[in-house]
Amino acid sequence: MSIDWYNWISLIVRWFHIIVGIAWIGASFYFVWLDNNLESTEEGDDADGHLWSIHGGGFYHNRKYMVAPEHLSPNLHWFKWEAYFTWISGFILFFILYYFGAQIYLIDSQKYDLSSMQAIGISLSMLLLSWVCYDLMCKSALRKKPLIFAVILFIYLTGIAYLADKFFSDRAAYIQVGAIIGTLMAGNVFWVIIPNQKKVVSSMIAGKPVDPSLGAAAKLRSLHNNYLTLPVLFMMISTHYPITYSQPANWITLAAISLAGVSVRHYFNLRHTKRTKDPFIFLAMFFMLVAILVPASLSVSPDLEKVDPQVTIEPKVMSLIKKHCVSCHSANPTSDLFKTAPKALEFDSAASIKQNAMTIHQQVVEYESMPMGEIEMSDEERRVIDNWYKSLSKNPDD
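RESULT FIELD:
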């Protein structure tokens, strides 16, 4: 019995990551919605707001105390493990796919010729330094100017996306930025939101005055997390859509789609308030058009003769790719089925074939779902692809 432990472990970690991520995102969306829909309490009531709601056949009455209530229940519910496990599982998945398979997925030698350790070191450094810079911004005077802060943060993260695109492969660049934003969000929970809430609870138990700035700082970081959620969700699924990250200047695509996500999130945050909200849906549509049209206008016809001389593919494998794949997966498909390469996967060069080796192996050998249609591929030909991929996994520098 043969078991593909690598893919099974990857599947389990990814599924767990999605489960805890949904729990974290759901809590974030709910509490921001709750904050935006609180009604004023009656005079003399020490609560800052309250809300009645109905769900699942029952009635709920929520009350919010910005500093602290006079009496605190011993059965206090905390929302933290969802965030912690989302980051931990995400980092494990990042390690399995992009660090363990750095030569295939993280590195693009046509952009920057890095060793596996160099690429991993740059990736980890970007995670750490991004948190340090963001945290300093949140503690500076900028925290009192939310609009200016948002603009600077957007420029900062777009700059990171630009640098990631210079160092890493196209798809890895998007995931790297997603990992950075996920680190900022989890760091907010671990280093600010939960510690501040613990200080508030400790002060109450000790009968000491509660510092209101602790709650304000926690709320600010929580609001940041809320707006960063949709952009990071897109980055999580971006690997399924090469049409986004394979574009020229793909950092522009990422920035525009992220702004669309922020606009959608802002619309829903304002949905039940009296503030103007409808323009933000049209703004999201505009940013999506920017994501589609701007990179397309920058595209140029690829020079199919331009191949990195350091990247070579076995003649047998190259012959099979040309015979069975490039009629569809090419910059200029000759197949009647497609006008553009499916999923933007183009196998016109040795470098692109090597970079997509795992995908080719999965579709041709593991699932036998490719080539499609009437194009036949013998078992012997599939074994050639299998042996090539296994040798590549053992000797990624070949």
